[in-house]
Amino acid sequence: MTLTFASPDGPTIPLYPVRPCRLRKALDTLGERAATWAKAQDFNAGFGAALVIPGEDGAIAAALGGLGDETARKRQRFAMAGVASGLPAGRYALQGNLEDGDLEEACLGWLLSRYRFDRYAKQPPAVAELVAPGGVDAARIEAIVAGEVLTRDLINTPAGDMGPAALEQAARDLAEANGARVEVTEGDDLLDQGFPMIHAVGRAADDDPRLIDLRWGEEGPTLTLVGKGVCFDTGGLNIKPSSSMALMKKDMGGAATVLGLASMIMTLGLPLRLRVLIPAVENSISDEAMRPGDILTSRKGLTVEINNTDAEGRLVLADALTLAVEEKPDLLVSMATLTGAARVAVGPDLAPFYTGDDDDAEALAEAAVRVRDPVWRMPFHDPYEAMLEPGIADLDNAPKGGFGGSITAALFLRRFATHPRYLHFDIYGWTPNPAPGRPKGGVGQGARALFDALPEILDL
User: Fold this and answer.
1) What is the pLDDT, as a whole number, of residue 56?
2) DSSP character for 131?
3) Contact (CB, 8 A) for 123 and 116
4) Which of 225, 235, 234, 74 is nearest to 151 (CA)?
5) Residue pair 395/388 in contact by the 8 Å Cβ criterion
6) Which of 357, 338, 321, 359 is nearest to 407 (CA)?
7) Worst-scoring range by mean pLDDT, 229-238, 399-408, 441-450?
8) What confidence score (pLDDT) does residue 293 get?
9) Counting beta carbons within 10 angstroms of the beta carbon of residue 357, is it exposed (0 to 12), middle (13 to 18) or buried (19 or more)?
10) β-strand 422-426 against 331-336: which pairing, if any?
């Protein structure tokens, strides 16, 4: 699905974004007839409300879009996405003096409101189009939206059509479109090439486990993105209850998100050298499945006791992160739908992240506010390190007790991501309730914030 701005050629309908406190002034500009009509329709510029104003001939002469009051804007994002969804067919042109950040949010939200996942059933099309307003970088916004669409489509696709092989193909398609190259280590070759934990997690599935390695760019600082690609997670022999398994098609949300971010980077030609590593597996059940109590030896040489086969994401990431560190990139980032504990801590809308670099954390947090992609810093709390050490092996993949689950998972990964500039995101990758610009289903988290922060973090 391609979501772009409408062509600037031809007639447009003026659209006035307006806050409740400025509604009177906007209506004075449009005239008494418009004011009377707005009052009759009980339009009060509430968040996401839309109103078309007819001309004397009955055609749409103008439209109003509600931005909501201060409270509404604090609680919600993308008011213009709601407006777009409420407008009839037409080509609209924003009017007025939105500030730069608000104007970009309006454009981004509008394009995102046009998203439909229609692979398996027809969906009602989005009919209201937006002409790119002056003062925005239309190509940049379209590239960001395209990356988000890729992420959403990958997450929304059921595991029957998005197993490790299909995820590999998605990476190859992205690489081909952008002049990147891909190498894949698959099946028993994972053992030969030194990725024993990726192999152990995925060996029970018919769709072979694999490590996808995408590279792009020849000059500039080096950025390595590692995304968890567990295409479906039964929990393994520690099988999940059915209620917990229902959304496990999204357990490759980290992989989907780094591919979406990579799409943004490559499309817009950021001056850096990019590497994307995706351990793609299905955590299935068979006589080949790893067992509780097994001890695995990682690529790094650290041994890991398997106390819960449902804590598999950190295992595949560990081998991939070890490989990533071997090249000493300037910045290493992992993204994963890793723990339920993160959702308990911050809910589904915030993307928790971990870093030991205060400057990187500040840059990311400021970017998140600018681009309306909320994140929240969590601590690498060193006293919890002891919880990872079972005694019988170097590490425990599922510490007992249940406390600080997102933190202990991040600390586990840090044992392998021995890098001074390491960012880890423990994302959810799913919108449980529809919101403007974000229908129920897969969603990218943290990618837009990181993309906006990269020029500062990497001094681009």
Assistant:
1) 87
2) B
3) yes
4) 225
5) yes
6) 338
7) 399-408
8) 96
9) middle
10) parallel
Distance CA 57, CA 351 (A): 50
For the segment 371-384, what is each residue's pLDDT rounded down to a tens digit? 999 999 999 999 99
Contact predicate 372/437, CB 8 Å: no
Domain with CATH 3.40.220.10 in the chain: 13-136
pLDDT digits (tens, 9 = 90+) for 48-75: 999 999 998 889 999 999 999 999 989 9
Which stretches of 135-233 are assigned E, i.e. beta strand?
181-186, 210-216, 222-227, 229-233
Under CATH, which number does the domain 13-136 receive?
A: 3.40.220.10
Give ranges for CATH 3.40.630.10 in the chain: 141-457
Q: How far apart are CA 59 and CA 289, in angstroms?
A: 65
Assign 3-state DSSP to the chain and report helix, strand, coil percentages, each to 5: 40, 20, 40
Q: Is the pLDDT of residue 97 over 80?
A: no
Q: How many angstroms separate the CA atoms of 208 and 248, rounded?
A: 18
What mean pLDDT do residues 202-229 have? Answer: 98
Helix (H) or strand (E) holding 61: strand 60-66
> Given this model, what pLDDT does residue 96 score?
83
What positions carry a catalytic annotation? Answer: 240, 314
Amino acid at the residue 301: G
CATH entry, 141-457, from 3.40.630.10, 3.40.50.2300, 2.20.28.120, 3.40.1010.10: 3.40.630.10
- Edge to edge, the sheet with strand 60-66 lists 50-54, 60-66, 13-18, 90-94, 128-130
* Residue 85 near residue 126 (C-beta atoms within 8 A): yes
User: For position 313, what pLDDT does the model report?
Assistant: 98
Structure tokens at 439: 């229908």
CA angle 192, 208, 216 (to 5 degrees): 75
Phi, psi of 322 (to 5 degrees): -60, -45
Q: Which residues contact residue 19 at a Cβ distance below 8 angstroms, ignoring those fewer than 6 apart?
A: 45, 66, 67, 68, 69
Residue 1 is predicted with a pLDDT of: 73
Q: What is the DSSP string of 283-312?
A: E--STTS--TT-EEE-TTS-EEE-S-TT--
Residue 439's nearest CA partner among 449, 447, 431, 428 is 431
